[in-house]
Amino acid sequence: MKTVAILISGQGSNMASLVRASRDERWPARIAAVIANRAQAPGLDVARELDVPVDVVPHAAHGGRDAFDAALAARLEALGADLVVLAGFMRILTEGFVRRFAGRLVNIHPSLLPAFPGLDTHARALAAGVRVHGATVHLVTPTLDHGPILAQAAVPVLDGDDAATLAARVLAAEHRIFPMAVRWLLEDRVRVVGERAEIDGVPACDRLLWEGAR
């Protein structure tokens, strides 16, 4: 049974979807801890309600990114984390941290990467006039919001959408694809070939999930 650590900074809705899926689907893993970089992250209370151990490694208490990442890495190593899941973790990790956990660090991003990396993805998608938006699960590399794509879900951009309504539609899709992709990793079904991922020998791009208006 593998050990999973989930990192959060905010509400923790993706974290909760992962915890529930792990139990409902009987994943071959245990979620050892939910770790936040902010003591006031609302997701910590959600994790407690789900009976998952919580911890805080406050970034403000460390002298810069390198010191924070070293403290976070030490905590993850103490847990014996086989997989580190970034579920709304709003910190840019250093190259050294990413390389230390290479191949076992996975993130979800609220856009169809490589479009709209970084912040404010929904407002930027609306400003660009795209008709399709979505979410991406990917392995983490030192380049921000980059790395082999494991799963994507596309949702329509509807007339009258604002950033909030579009974000809600994308979040619902995130809750479907994130547990799916994390389970693939835990079941050793993922292989990286060059810069692309394969799931059971099938390119991940052949497994994209297209969502209707919900």
Your description of this structure?
- This protein is α/β, with parallel strands linked by helices.
- The protein has helices at about 15-25, 45-50, 65-80, 95-100, 120-130, 165-185, and strands at about 1-10, 30-35, 55, 85, 105-110, 130-140, 150-155, 190-195, 195-200, 200-205, 210.
- It folds into 2 domains: about 1-100, Rossmann fold; about 110-214, Formyl transferase, N-terminal domain (Rossmann fold), CATH 3.40.50.170.
- The protein has 6 helices and 11 strands.
- The longest helix is centred in the C-terminal third of the chain and has 24 residues, at about 165-185.
- The termini are far apart.
In short:
Helix content is 34%, strand content 26%.
Key features of this structure:
Rossmann fold, 2 domains, eight-stranded mixed sheet, alpha/beta, 11 strands, 214 residues, three-stranded antiparallel sheet, single chain
